[in-house]
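Technical note accompanying the year-one report. For the benefit of new consortium partners, we illustrate the data format agreed upon in the data management plan: each record pairs a sequence with a structure-token string. No post-processing was applied to the example shown here.
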Amino acid sequence: MTVETPDTSSDGAAYSGYADKITAFARAPFTEFEEPGGPAEVEERARGRGWRRTIGELLVCPYCLGMWISGGFNVGMVVAPRGTRFTASVLTGLTISDFLQIAYKAAEDRGLGGI
């Protein structure tokens, strides 16, 4: 499901996607909209200099952000193992939910979805 979002880019290009609408406020100080990507995705680039640009580069690079989050989980297992395990279990549930949704959609597209 794609939800049309209001025009929030500086160059007047509107983009769609529910994930972008939810996280746009957090990315806005660090990134600039370039063009629509795939479904529920946008292409952005880092803005500014110094720490602002560094954070922007992390936000536009999913691989880089994933590595930092992974490192944070490793530190969390040493510093606060109970809270880290709880957070990891929540994210595991989210991942399982995503895979089930993808499998359901694939089954529905093949005509295996019941009614």
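Partners are asked to follow this layout when depositing records. The two ends are 19 Å apart (CA to CA).
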